[in-house]
């Protein structure tokens, strides 16, 4: 190459280098700007999330769970009940509304089983799909009838053929007011958060059954076993632990006195936490009159509170468990005819 050619090549490369430098500068500037903006957005979202976590315990779940998705998989409704008149009356109403809502749009409701833990068939066997299981040995429940519930689930899961992958644990005092979708999501069952189940406020008692090596007491969800939508294999693992924790709690006088009629609910919450299970907490799962006045888009009415009026027409509340105890030994009043639910 001649000297002239070399000079021309060198002079031509200077503008090219300038253009390359300017292009690199603007690309770097834009990249840094995008990174800084994204950091600000992430920080803002994190701050908002932290505020939500502080103000609403229902959001204390992984981000993917906060979207409150539904799985779409069919769920089997499992209703635990006794052969007492009050329980049978409630079971018939519950089953009636199950049939009303089962096939409506938006429903993932599959089969239905009444798990009768009285040990013997009753006169509703032909009306409601039922499987009979044994109660606890005499005297073991100490008059606390719902202590039979976890033992009933253990037996049912062992002997029944359940086609659905998911199970809804339900109770006789539930009424379906809207078609129920499957609110669970894979390894996260769905549950209703009860305001009176407070593991953190009862840490000294909870620690008797949920030792510190299992993690913080906040791992115990503020729930009972019902309503809960859960995978069948997951419940199969939890149920024996739930039964054992229930019996241990009942055997501990301090725990029995502190938890009273919700002891078995605490037992399920502790048992599921012992298995490392966290629930999606759905406030829209259920409503409880008279505290909730509108059904809206909620799915189940839980009529546990009696709405009674005194002679001054003043409303006061009676727990349903007390009302149930009053009615356990009463026969159906004369002249009252209850027709078969079709």
TrEMBL record:
- Any idea where this protein resides? Membrane
Q: Name one Pfam family in it.
A: HPAT
Hydroxyproline O-arabinosyltransferase-like domain residues: 76-315
Keyword check for Disulfide bond = no
Show the InterPro entries listed in the entry.
Answer: HPAT-like, HPAT/SRGT1-like
Topology in the lipid bilayer is annotated as:
Single-pass membrane protein
Keyword annotations from UniProtKB, A to Z? Glycosyltransferase, Membrane, Transferase, Transmembrane, Transmembrane helix
| Protein's name according to its UniProt entry | Hydroxyproline O-arabinosyltransferase 3-like isoform X3
Q: Does the keyword Secreted apply?
A: no
- What are the transmembrane regions? 12-32
PANTHER family documented for this protein: HYDROXYPROLINE O-ARABINOSYLTRANSFERASE 3, PEPTIDYL SERINE ALPHA-GALACTOSYLTRANSFERASE
């Amino acid at each position: 190459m001649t000297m002239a050619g070399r000079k021309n090549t060198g002079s031509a490369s200077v503008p090219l280098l300038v253009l390359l430098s300017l292009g690199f500068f603007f690309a770097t500037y834009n990249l840094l700007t995008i990174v800084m903006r994204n950091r600000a957005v992430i920080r803002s979202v994190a701050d908002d999330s932290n505020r939500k976590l502080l103000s609403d315990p229902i959001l204390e779940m992984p981000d993917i769970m906060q979207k409150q998705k539904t799985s779409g998989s069919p769920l089997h409704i499992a209703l635990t009940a006794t052969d007492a008149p009050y329980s049978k009356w409630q079971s018939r109403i519950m089953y009636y509304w199950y049939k009303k809502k089962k096939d409506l749009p938006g429903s993932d409701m599959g089969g239905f089983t009444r798990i009768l833990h009285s040990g013997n068939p009753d006169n509703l066997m032909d009306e409601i799909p039922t499987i009979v299981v044994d109660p606890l040995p005499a005297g073991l429940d100490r008059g606390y009838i719902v202590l039979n519930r976890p033992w009933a689930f253990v037996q049912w899961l062992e002997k029944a053929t359940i086609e659905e992958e998911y199970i809804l644990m339900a109770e006789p005092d539930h009424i379906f007011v809207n078609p129920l979708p499957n609110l669970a999501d894979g390894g996260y069952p769905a549950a209703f958060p009860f305001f009176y189940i407070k593991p953190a406020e009862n840490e000294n008692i909870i620690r008797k059954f949920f030792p510190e090596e299992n993690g913080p007491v906040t791992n115990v969800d503020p729930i009972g076993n019902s309503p809960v939508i859960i995978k069948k294999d997951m419940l199969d693992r939890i149920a024996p632990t739930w039964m054992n924790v229930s019996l241990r709690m009942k055997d501990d006088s301090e725990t029995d006195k502190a938890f009273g009629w919700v002891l078995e609910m605490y037992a399920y919450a502790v048992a599921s936490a012992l298995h490392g299970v966290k629930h999606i907490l759905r406030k829209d799962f259920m409503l409880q009159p008279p505290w909730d006045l509108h059904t809206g888009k909620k799915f189940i009415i839980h009529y546990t509170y009696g709405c009674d009026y005194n002679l001054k027409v003043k409303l006061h509340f009676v727990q349903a468990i007390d009302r149930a105890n009053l009615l356990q030994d009463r026969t159906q009043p004369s002249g009252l005819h209850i027709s078969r639910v079709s």
